[in-house]
Structures are given as C-alpha cells and as structure tokens.
Task: inverse folding
C-alpha cells in the first residue's frame, strides 16, 4: 500500500464536518480510487468545544489555522474557512510557500486572489484546486478545465446561486413577492440571516469570474462583472414571464468575443424549453458552449454539506493521484487579459416592467421614449386593476418585451424616462436569454 | 516549448476527420492548455483517395493500421475504426504492448475487452482512455472517474443512444409509429441504414456496462446487461404515457446493491418533471446518484463529428498533461466482481399495453391473471375504437399501470396470459422510472 496523503482541515463548519464524515464513510472506496489512503492529520477551527457530530480526537488540533501549513505531518491543506482575505488567504499563501498543495471551497478568495495563488502554486509545482468553490458538488471546474479542454468556449452561463434559485422558483410555484419568500427561506434555513452576498448576486459573480477565466483562458477579472440580484423581482414579473413563455432566473453569463470579455449576473427571462428553465429549488446548473462539442449542460446540488464535501474530496483524490496541472487550465503566463466588452453594443431582447399611474398620456410618454431611443416593441401587456405592491390605487403595471437590438437603446429609453411623473417606481429590466 | 505529443490516427471517418479539423482549428488554444503541442504524425484508413475535406498530406500514411503502433514518430494512438474485435482490437493490443498510450471512441471494444486492455495499460504504465466511447462530447467518463470519485455511486442511468431518443421524441412531437419515424430518420441521416445496434439497445448496453464498471468499481460485465430496444413502441404508448404524466425514453440503468449488480437497457416511462424527460432529439444525458453529492446530471451531444472529436482530443490533452491513471478509476486488481441481481426481486411500477379483442370476458381474463400473479393495478385505460396498428377491426388497447411491486409478479402475469386467445399481439411492458 502506498503512503497516505495527509490532509490538514482548516475550518470545521458544515463543509468541514462533511469532509470528515465522507472520508470516514467512503474510506475504503476512496483508497481504491486514489491509489492510496487519504487521512486527516490535523484540524483547526475557532471553537474546539463545539459539537459537530464528528469525532475530532484522532486529529491534532491547532487553535490558529496558520500553524497548519508548516506541520511536518501535512501534505495538503483543505481550507474551508471562507472570506476573501484574512486567515484563509494567509493560510493559502503559507501553504503554497511551504511547497504543499492547497484545496479550497472559497469562491471569494479565488475570485479576488486566484491569479496570485495560481502563480505561487505553479512556481512551487503543487496543486491549487477549487472544485468546491463553484456550483458545489457539480464537477464543472473539471468539466471545463479538462472535459471541454479541446474547445474554444464561446459562452459559459448558468444558475450559480441556490438561494436565489430557491426563492425564484418558490415565487413561481407558491406565489408571493420577493420579501415574503425570502423571509420564509430564512426561516427554513435556505437563506442566511444576512443574505446580501446571495441575493445581490455577489456570490454568483465570484463563481462567474472563475468560470470565465477557466473557459476563456483569460486572467481572472472579478471587478468587471456587472452584478445585480433578485430584490426587484415581484410576483407580477414571474406571472407575466410565464404568460410570455419564460421563467425568471438569476443567470451569471460570460462570453468571449474578439478579445473582449462580457461578464454579467442579472435576472433573465429563460425560455421554457431551455435547460435552465427546468432547474428548480436550490439546484445549480451550468451551460458551456464549445466550438466543437456544442452545448454541454451540468446540473446538481450547488451547496450543502454532502455535495460540497464531495467536491473537496474529489480535489484531494486528484492530488493523491498526482493529477494536477495549472489552476486555470493553462500556465499562469499564458492567460491573456481582455478588455470588458462595451455592453451597449451587445444585442438582445429585454423585458421591461413599468409601474405607472393609470391616467391619460402615460402610455404615449413611454412609447415615445422607446421610439426616440430606437427601441422596437415586440409585445406589450397592461393589465387592468391596481398593482398592489406599489401601494397606490391608481398604479398599474405596464410590461414590454423589446425586439432584439443594442442594449444601449434600452438604457437610453430608461434614461429618457428618468424622473418622469408617469412612473410610480423604478422600472424593472430583465434580459431575455436567447441562447 | 515542450516537445509535441505525437498522435497516430487510425480510421478517417467522420470522427477521424473531426479530430484533424479540431486539432488544426484550436491548435494554439490546445497547446496552451496541454502545455505542449499535439501533432498528428501518421494516419491510416481503408481508402486513401477518398475526399474527407481535410488535408492529409502533412501526415505519414499507413495502409495497414497495425503499422501505426510500432512507428517511432508516434507517442499515442487514437483508434476511430470501430468494431469490438478485428483491426481495432489488434491495434489496441499492439499499441499497449509497445508501451504507448491508447485513446479510443470504440464502445463495443471497451465493453467487450476493456478489462484486458486496462490491465495491459496498467502494466505498461500508459493511458487507456475512452471518453468518446460513452455519450460523445459529454465528459461523463471524467465526471464519474474523477469528478464524483469521492462518492459511492448507488445508481447511474441515462439516455445513451441519440438515434433512439431522436425517434422517440419525434414520435412525441410529430406522432407516428416507430417504423414510419425510423424511415424518416434514416432519410435524414439520423439513423443508419442498418439501425440494429442502435434501436435494439445494444449500443446503449455497451455504454451502460462501461458506466457501471466505472461507477461501482466492478469488473466490466457486458454480458449481463438485459437489453431491449424501441421497436415495440407505438404511437398509442407515447400518447397514453403523456396522458399519465410521462415521456417514453430508452433508459440504460445500472444499480449496485449489496454486491449485486443490476444493468438494464429498456423503454421506460419517465415522469415529466425528471431531468431525463426534457432530453430531446439526439441528445444524450446521464444521471449519477452519489451518497454525498446527491444527483448529478450531465447533458450534451452524444454523437457527431464535433462532439466526438472534442472527447477524443480531451483524452489526448490528458495524455499530453501526463494526467492519467487506471482506466476504470482504480487499479485493475481492485475491481470487484458482482453477481447480477435477481431482477424478479426488484421492485417498481410497470406500464403494460395489451392489444385485445374487443369482446366479453377479455377484461376479466386479464385482470384475473393480474390478481393471480399478485399484481395490483394503479390505473387502467381502455379507449373505445379500433387500434389500427394491430390491423384488425375488433382490436383495442388496454393500458395498465401497476402499483409498485416485485418485477417477478408482472412477469408471472404475462406468463399466465401467454397464448391467450384474448390477446391480438405481444403485450408491451415498460418500467416506470421512479428515481
């Protein structure tokens, strides 16, 4: 029997406990697959005394995670602390400097510091692996890095945040506006007490930046991801989208075209026949479009103890097998830099919802703004009766779907209407996924 | 720049030509990802003069593929000839004996001889890779071998034959019985002139045996795959299934349970909400259920020049990167053997269609057989009017869905009705996918 791969675990939250359970429960199978045992030797967390439902007594304990990297009985560190900086980043740097491999579930840290860490890992000839950082248990990092490696990827997009998808599909099946469903989701544990990172799209943006780098061979560029979330979605949007043949999803999308990079997290209308329209609840799913393979679709659990532990241990098995190369699929020096695309020139269809006062001239004002901005309207719906969510009796919803055109035209139309007395609130814009 | 990986290509049909095009078109990207160039040095096919739309002049030509393995300018052979034995198998053995890596798209050869070849590759410390053999461009071999490696897989199943799925979904959308749609599919090039391997489930069975071995760590056992196809499906089955909330799909399914292995390719009723129900046209899709990751779903093109070439070249990139281990995810010696499960003890629901003569006592006879066999009926439909496909005026269809029970009971009921004068044809049995 070959020597064991000795693992230090930093962070013993849900995922850390899951990794301990998995390595225990599937021990024999993993040894057969990895070609050698994978053993945890040391662990670290904030609170030693907390009951995590796992026996920590076989492992050395470190109060300070920073001590793990230097331990002589550790070959690889698995970081499950979280946070883009602080202890997680320090541990990553120390581990790679010590010439040891580093496995992480930390999307924020990879999105912000992945390039620096990839370069360090390359110089040290060790692995930097982060399958668990994107879409939990779905092996999409491997799928893109290796499975689709023969392809020029033209677009990669998907449902990257389970909390948002849970809320949107609950609004779909049970009705209700965003804030009601969020409160329910929090009560059920599907959304955090402070859900900002999830519902404002930041978590999805972290993952998207990673997928884009890996897919296009471009250096990570989190700062240029245009990011918005799901706070503005109301029950009427879901209902009107359905009537038009769509589902509402928070879609992270990246495209590479002529050296320009497009990255956006935004609410989209997804055609009912598109695979993303069937992704329900807290599932995640990713589509990659390659120039030879065509459309690949991956779906699975995007979070949770078991799925995330599955991805962390898959990385550990790769390390045990000695199967690891550059973190972003190619040597650090060969990643290109891309300018962000000029979004205004991007073409597409849009869904617009205006909350308007129900009085003469309003329709004329809005349609004139559209005409003056060169926006062509494909369909328009105005339902009679008040729109209660706007809190005023005379407010109704006006829904429009535009023909395909440059995004700058829609932005121009909205600019023309800014401050209009006809509007009872901010217009809602969603893009239509025509892929 | 590192030295090129030098590839010999055996077989220049659609896929072979696709590999040449892909390596040419994505050359620079592949070199960045693989860390070194991948160059074809020699090719072989039956007919040198045929126009394949690619320039063969840069490559050495061998009339006999057997000569490729021994060439000094070849590091790895990609076999795209096909056939479980004959030249493909000889070339595989010669290549591995010569201590060179072997990449193949040949599902029949891997299903029949994969174990022998895996052992040879292991002894020679070279790669045996076959991503293209299962589900074309979908990286499911890698997804199971590595992505889901941390999991005990309890079941793996999916739509493994694009021709069958095309025919079934055409029957769904356009109507018509199997034979009409097959003729159309042949005219359009979606089905072969001799479609036996596809429509009788043999191609799917080859792929299923490979997936099962990889998923469960069991030695390949193609002979124990219970295999049937789609010839018996008629328009009424599709319509009745739809009325009951299902789609009809040819599903290859494998389960491992207590050292017993279940492998079957059979028409199934798939609930409308199941991901396999959305798989349309010639797409392939695979579901794997892991004990930590839960349900993973992969979908994409299962055949064709581009997708299959994508998978072949992904394997070549792995070889170029030096990332390859045991062919079936664990060393040859650690694969276990399993006895086939006793299918009769397997529990499930079944769909039954009887073509019956429309006269007194028929219903009583059939329901009595069900009762005597301990089959409990969940729902039953008899539509008035003739069933024209049986070619007789007095024949109608009787459709039943059973409650969950052991499969042997349904088999017993059908046995009791064998030769009955009430039946105008063979009963049709489909299993219901309740996963």
Result:
């Amino acid at each position: 029997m070959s020597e064991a791969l000795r693992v230090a675990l930093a962070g013993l939250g849900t995922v850390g406990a899951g990794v301990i359970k998995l390595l225990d429960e599937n021990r024999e199978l993993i040894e057969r697959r990895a070609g050698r045992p994978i053993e945890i030797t040391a662990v670290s967390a904030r609170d030693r005394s907390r009951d995590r439902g796992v026996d920590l007594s076989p492992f050395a304990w470190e109060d300070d995670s920073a001590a793990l990297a230097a331990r002589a009985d550790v070959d690889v560190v698995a970081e499950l602390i979280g946070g883009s900086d602080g202890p997680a980043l320090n541990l990553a740097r120390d581990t790679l400097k010590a010439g040891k491999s580093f496995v992480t579930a930390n999307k924020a840290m990879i999105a912000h510091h992945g390039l620096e860490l990839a370069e360090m890992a390359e110089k040290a000839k060790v692995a930097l692996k982060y399958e668990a950082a994107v879409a939990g248990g779905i092996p999409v990092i491997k799928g893109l890095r290796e499975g689709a490696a023969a392809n020029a990827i033209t677009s990669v997009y998907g449902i990257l945040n389970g909390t948002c998808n849970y809320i949107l599909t609950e609004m779909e099946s049970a009705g209700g506006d965003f804030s009601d469903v969020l409160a329910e989701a929090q009560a059920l544990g599907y959304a955090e007490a402070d859900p900002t990172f999830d519902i404002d799209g930041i978590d999805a943006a972290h993952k998207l930046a990673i997928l884009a780098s890996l897919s296009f061979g471009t250096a990570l560029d989190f700062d240029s991801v245009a990011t918005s979330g799901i706070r503005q979605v109301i029950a009427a949007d879901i209902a009107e989208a359905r009537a038009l043949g769509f589902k509402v999803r928070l879609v992270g999308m990246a495209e590479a075209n002529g050296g320009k990079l497009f990255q956006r997290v935004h609410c989209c209308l997804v055609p009912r026949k598109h695979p993303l329209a069937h992704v329900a609840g807290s599932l995640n799913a990713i589509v990659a479009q390659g120039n030879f393979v065509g459309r690949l679709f991956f779906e699975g659990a995007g979070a949770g103890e078991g799925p995330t532990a599955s991805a962390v241990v898959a990385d550990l098995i790769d390390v045990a097998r000695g199967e690891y190369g550059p973190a972003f699929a190619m040597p650090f020096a060969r990643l290109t830099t891309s300018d962000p695309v000029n979004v205004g020139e991007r073409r597409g269809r849009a869904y617009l919802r205006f909350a308007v006062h129900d009085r003469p001239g309003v329709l004329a004002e809005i349609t004139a703004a559209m005409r003056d901005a060169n926006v062509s309207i494909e369909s328009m719906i105005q339902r009679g009766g008040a729109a209660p969510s706007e809190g005023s009796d005379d407010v109704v919803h006006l829904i429009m779907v535009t023909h395909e055109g440059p995004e700058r035209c829609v932005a121009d139309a909205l600019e023309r209407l800014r401050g209009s007395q006809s509007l009872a609130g901010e217009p809602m814009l969603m893009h239509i996924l025509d892929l």
